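Regression test attached.
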Amino acid sequence: MRSVRLQKLKKSFRDGTVISDVSLNMPAGKFFALLGPSGCGKTTLLRLIAGLEKADSGKIFIGDEDVTDLPIHKRPINIVFQNYALFPHLDVFDNVAYSLKLEKLPKRIIEQKVLKILEAFHLENHIYKRVTELSGGQQQRVALARAIVNEPDVLLLDEPLAALDFKLREKMLIELIELQDKLKTTFLYVTHDQFEALTVADQMAIMNHHGEIEQIGTPKEIYEFPLSSFVARFVGTTNIMTGTLCNLDKEPEIEIEQLGRFKIDLSQKHKKEWMVEGCNIIMSIRPEKIYISKNVVENFSNSLKGHVQSIVYHGRSTQYNILLKNGMRIQVFEQNEEHFPQQVIDYDNEVNLYWQKENAVILEK
Amino acid sequence: MKSLSKSQVPFSFGAPAMIWQVLFFYLPLALIVISSFIKAADNGLIEGLTLDHVTFFLRPLYLKVICSSFILAISNTIICFLIAYPLAYFIAFTAKRFGNLFLILVIVPFWTNFLLHVYAWFFVLDKDGFLNILLKGLGLVQDPVSHLNTPFAVIIMMVYYYLPFMVFPLYSSLERMDVRLIEASRDLGATWLQTFRRIILPLTKRGLKAGFFLVYIPSFGEFVIPELMGGDRQMFVGTVIADYILGEETGALGAAFTVLAMVFMLLSAVVIYWIIERFIPGKSHG
C-alpha cells in the first residue's frame, strides 16, 4: 500500500482532450474516486498513472518513488478496464494467473493463489470456462481478480461497473468497498457517475471539462460544501439562484430580482475575500434541504412562495417542481415518511418553501 | 447459436459453386488419381492396375525435386510471414485512417499484369540492372554478375507475388483484435515480446494459419515463377509435372508424379498445422 502523488501533470492530444496542470495526492490505502463528466480527461489521467500514456510534463510518484519514466510493465499498478479486457483465448484460470506466470512463480504457488482468489470472488465453479461464457458480473469479477492477484500497490478502476445493470452495480459497489477495506490497496476509481463516487470514496476529486481539478475532499464535504458552481451542479442535484450580496456588515443577504432578499450564512468559515457588498453571487440549495408546505410554518430563516408545476414520485421520495413568480423553477425533494400524509400537495397548489440559511451554499459567480 | 437468418439461406445458394467445383476440380482430380494407377496396353485399352508409375519416381533425383519445392515453398512462406506481420500490424494499429490506403498499396501490384512484373524484375536483377547499379554505388560489389536465373531471383519474385496473400488474413485478424488486450497484458507486467507471444500471436492464429496455407500450398506447386526467373538450373515439382504431362505418352507418369507431390504437400501442410497449433498457445480466435 503506497500513495499516488501527481505533480503538475500535463497532457494534450490533437483531438483536444487535455489534462491541465493536475496535482493530486491520493493517500496510501484509501479509496479515492475521480469524478468528472464524460470526456473530461479522467480516463487519460488514469492512463498516465498506469503508464499507458506519457505525460507532456509533470511527475508521478508511487510512495516516494518517481515512476514518471518507468515503463508500464514495471509499474506496481494494475488496471480494471472499462470493458474488462479479458483475454478471450484463455480460460478463467489462465486469465487470473497471467501476471503470476510472467513472474515465473512455481506452478504450485500460482495454483494456490489463483484458486484462493477465485474462491473469494465466488468463481470456483467457473475456473476452466472460457471468459466469453461468463455473465457480465462474473467477467467483472474475473477482471478484478486478475488485477489484484499479484498484489499491486495501486489499483486503477476505469468505470468498472458501467456495463452492469443497476442492481448488480449497487451490489458490486459494496463488494468493492469491502475488498478495498480488506486489501488496504490504494484504489483509484474513475467514474462519471456521482452516485458511485459518493458511495465508494474515502476521498474524491472533481474534474471539470478542461481537465482541471475543481475540488478535493470527502464525499460529504464535496456534496455539502461545493466550492464552485460546477461542483454544486455536477455532484447531486441542486437549485442555483443568482443575485447580489447585500447587508454584508450586519445580517448578510442575497437579493434576487423579483423575489426579494434572503438571509445567508456568511459566518467566519464561509466568508471569502471576494465577498464584497453588491457583488454578484450564486446561491445553491439542495432540493432535500427545502421544506415544502401549504401551511405557514415558523422558525425558518427563509421562505418563498410558488406553484406546483409537476410532481415526480420516486418511491422513497417525491420530487416537486415549483414555479416561482420570476419564472424560475425549483426542485424540492420530500421524504415519503408516511403512507397517508396529513397534507396532500397537488398540481397547481400554491405552496410555501422554507429553508435555513445554513443549508444554502454561497458561491462566486 | 445458430441464427434463424443463417439457417434460412437455402442449400441452392451454394449449388452453382459446388457444381462448378465438382465438374472442374474434383472430377479431373479423380481422373488424375485413377490414371496414375492404370496400366494401359499399346492399343489404349486398360489392362489393369499398377504401381509402376508411382515407383518410377521413388528415386533420389525426383525426391530431390520434391525437396527443392518444399524448401522453396516453406522459405517463401516464412519470408512472407516475417514481412507481412509487421506490415499488417502497422496497417491495423498505427496507420489508422490511412489503413485503407496502405491496403490498396499492397494490392495494386496484384492488379498489374503478371508478365509486366517479370519484365520489371528483369530490369532490376540483370547484370546492368538497378540492383547492381545500387550495389556498385554503395561500393559493395566491383564485378557485378547477373542475378537472373538464380534461386535468389526466384525467391524474390515469389515473395513479391505472394505477399498480399499473407498480409490480408493477418490484417483482418489483427484489425479485429481489441487494443486494450495488449494494454492489459502490458499492465499486468508483460514486456512487449511476452505480450506478442502470449496475446497477439494466439489471437491472430486463425489469420496466421489462413495466410500460411494461402501462401504455402500454391507456392509448393508454383511453375511459372521458377521457370521464368530460375532458368533451367533447378527443377521443381511444377517443372517435372509439366514435362511429363506435355511429353509424348508420359501422361500417366505425369499424373503419378502429381499425386505423389500432392500427397507430400498435404502431409507437410498437416505437419505445419500441427506445429502452429502446438507452439502458439490458446484456442483459435479472430
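Expected vs. actual: identical. The domain at 4-227 of chain A is CATH 3.40.50.300 (Rossmann fold).
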